Task: inverse folding
């Protein structure tokens, strides 16, 4: 539900970097979004079309690189995907985990003219 | 001529910077602040009221209350005789650092020992937006079910204490407290866990002892 403010943040970052690069137009944004970031692509796309209007980023394509949520067992180091049911390590059975992937939420690069 | 410009910038970095500024302001005023998060109806306001009633003679307490609309919660807390500021987020699903920054000047920060920030009732969004407080507390409640730590890992990790409220109705639900606790501890080593009932008051003392201790530790760091 917070994708509007998020999308405004993405626009601000993109415009700032485009200006520094003396770009005339932004044609594409490459975003990296992890499963643990709670961001819905479709909502960002919806708001993007609205907030980017009348800027040099209007009409730019949004590309989402999705990163799966991965946990790492603190006992044996085994990594395994989130399943929403249990955190016990499937290899050694230990219960303490940390996120080892899927935290990402960044603008990796922009493509400009 | 199209070209690629490397950015590599965290999208929430602006919020993170403001959260750090909030923390500096709180530290300068020597105020220990907690962020209370939960789904709607878990008992955020009830626990805050219990806490204020029990601790208001020991500490000078202020509250910030986030809600999408209305001032019901802030009014209930202010009725206990402490300064309370309502933030109406206007439809937004969480508090962010900017909103807290706007609320701080409305409180007598220099007089406060403890600031309780009640986030918007939501088990997804508040996790992503740092506020700059010292500790995060999550309140779960028995009727929500024991699987929530597994379904909402983003919300449940990174919290310093978990309160499990409504223990008085445990018998009416199929709620495995051990399974719940395992899920929370898997994500938060050394986390404090307080099963209690805001309605009967049973178990509340453990939570209060933890909070007292955290405030005391914070105040010790200030004296160094």
Result:
């Amino acid at each position: 539900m917070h994708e509007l403010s998020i999308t405004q943040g993405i626009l601000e970052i993109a415009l700032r970097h485009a200006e520094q690069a003396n770009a005339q137009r932004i044609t594409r944004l490459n975003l990296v979004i992890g499963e643990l970031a709670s961001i819905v692509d479709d909502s960002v796309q919806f708001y993007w079309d609205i907030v980017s209007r009348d800027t040099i980023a209007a009409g730019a394509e949004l590309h989402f690189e999705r990163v799966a949520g991965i946990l790492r067992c603190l006992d044996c180091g085994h990594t395994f995907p989130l399943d929403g049911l249990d955190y016990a390590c499937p290899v050694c059975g230990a219960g303490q985990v940390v996120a080892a992937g899927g935290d990402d939420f960044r603008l990796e690069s922009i493509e400009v003219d | 001529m199209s070209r690629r410009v490397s950015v590599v910038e965290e999208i929430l970095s602006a919020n993170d910077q403001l959260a750090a500024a909030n923390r500096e302001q709180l530290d300068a005023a020597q105020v220990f602040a907690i962020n209370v998060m939960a789904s709607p109806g878990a008992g955020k306001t009830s626990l805050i009221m219990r806490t204020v009633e029990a601790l208001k003679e020991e500490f000078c307490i202020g509250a910030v209350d986030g809600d999408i609309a209305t001032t019901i919660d802030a009014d209930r807390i202010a009725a206990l005789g402490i300064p309370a500021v309502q933030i109406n987020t206007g439809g937004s699903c969480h508090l962010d650092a900017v909103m807290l920054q706007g609320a701080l000047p409305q409180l007598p920060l220099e007089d406060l020992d403890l600031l309780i920030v009640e986030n918007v009732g939501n088990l997804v969004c508040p996790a992503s937006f740092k506020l700059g407080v010292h500790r995060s507390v999550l309140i779960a409640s028995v009727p929500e079910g024991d699987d929530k730590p597994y379904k909402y890992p983003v919300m449940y990790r990174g919290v310093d204490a978990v309160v499990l409220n409504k223990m008085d109705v445990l018998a009416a639900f199929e709620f495995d407290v051990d399974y719940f606790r395992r899920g929370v501890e898997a994500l938060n080593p050394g986390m404090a866990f307080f099963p209690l009932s805001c309605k009967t008051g049973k178990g509340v003392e453990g939570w209060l002892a933890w909070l007292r201790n955290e405030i005391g530790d914070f105040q010790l760091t200030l004296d160094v």
